[in-house]
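// run 5 | inverse folding | seed 20
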């Protein structure tokens, strides 16, 4: 199947992240009580910016309901694997340095666990993004335009969204 590249609308992704950072969109299940809602929220933001899901069972990226979704929609490591490995429909990206982050990109952190366990949506950056000027929105530890430097970061990886395939 041949896919066409579409634009990722960073403004729409960030507008969604701003609107729902401190509350929940009732169209999506809230996973806060069963492992966390951060990747689910990040996926919602990606979807708002791209409008395309990948309905490939198990290894795609989609949400129909709490019981009908892929692991990549709501799981930190699975979201990363999908985005950096996706060659089909939906959003795709690459791991990049913090200095290349733009609003609408994702950052994953390890703070108190040895592996990455928290996904953040970049809401705003300085002219050269760094720990002191990147602001994020996230769920689980709900935050609206929180400074990245307020986290106790053990490990960080950044995902620059390159586009969306339709």
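// decoded
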């Amino acid at each position: 199947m041949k896919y066409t590249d579409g634009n990722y609308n960073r403004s729409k992704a960030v507008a969604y992240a701003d609107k729902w950072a401190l509350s929940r969109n009732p169209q999506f299940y809230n996973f806060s009580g069963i492992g966390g809602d951060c990747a689910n929220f990040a996926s919602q933001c990606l979807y708002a910016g791209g409008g395309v899901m990948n309905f490939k069972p198990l290894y795609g990226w989609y949400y129909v309901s709490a019981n009908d979704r892929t692991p990549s929609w709501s799981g930190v490591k699975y979201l990363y694997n999908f985005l950096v490995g996706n060659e089909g429909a939906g959003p795709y990206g690459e791991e990049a340095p913090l200095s290349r982050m733009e609003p609408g990109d994702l950052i994953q952190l390890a703070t108190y666990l040895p592996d990455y366990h928290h996904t953040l949506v970049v809401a705003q950056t300085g002219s050269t993004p760094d720990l002191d000027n990147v602001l994020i929105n996230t769920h689980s530890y709900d935050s609206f335009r929180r400074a990245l430097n307020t986290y106790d970061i053990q490990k960080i990886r950044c995902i620059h969204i390159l586009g969306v395939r339709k």
